[in-house]
Amino acid sequence: MSSQEKETSNSLYRQWQILSRLGTGKWLGTREIQETLQREGIDISLRTIQRDLNQISQRFPIENNKAVPQGWRWQSDAPIQSLPHMTSSQAVTFMMVEEHLKHLLPPSLVEEMNPWFDLARRNLSTHNNVRQWINRVRIVPATQPLIPPTVERDAQQAIYEGLLQDKQIECSYRSRGAHGEDRQYTLNPLALVQKGPIIYLICTRHDKSDVQTFALHRFKSAKVLELRAMHPVDFEIDEYIDSGALGFRVDFNQPTRNIDLQLYMQEADALYFSESQLSKEQTIEKISEDLYKVSATVPFTSQLIWWLRSFGKKMIRIEPIEVFNAVHEIE
Description:
11 helices, alpha+beta, 36% helix, five-stranded antiparallel beta sheet, Arc Repressor Mutant, subunit A, four-stranded antiparallel beta sheet, 331 residues, SH3 type barrels, 4 domains
């Protein structure tokens, strides 16, 4: 390869790296581009970046905001084909993300993703066998299907942006019940969790240190503050979920605790637990000819109680006694 060919190759690679960093919404400055490329081992001057962007703009639908320093982005009407090609497997993934996860993404990110969702639909329109995958895959709830409650869109966007930017949010929240009151809170958002049809914000209040859950559909309004969100030092979302906190406490005056659950049932019913376990340490023991005991350590929550009630008379015996009493509503 001649020196001129090598220089052309280097320029194409450099310009492609610059082009691939631009989005369709946010303006990206030349210094931001430089810092991003330098983190990836590409040493380039601001003047070279600006010269490359000016050359690229003659061939691709990108624009600058005429500010000082300049910001660049793809034009809003830029054809999606100007962006990198999408394979069929990627298109299926984007379609499933839009179908099942779109409501868990911040609206600002969804807006940026919309061109990709459109490209995925167009891609699949020419691949009949791959497109059929979308029509042959469904996710159904394990419990009674419920219609999701209506969420106030502006409040949702503020909450998602607060979580995305790691900022506090100021909100109006309606407490549960037909005559619930609207209360004002300043919250530190920590995580979002969807449980069935309801999305919960996991957070702390500015005046309390304990982690709490707030149902998204009960927010009447919300706005993002400039203050950085305060995080509990030892908070981990997976540990929080595993603790049974989202199963909701049986006694709201006491933290969720684990119990050694023992369920007695017939062999046919015990087969269910051999396929879907209560915990990794679960055991199944044959007690008599047609009596089996399933043992597992699980969080003692209201969710566990309602779940056990769904088995009706199939549960011949339940231990410990406090769980039995809760299932059968015995004081």
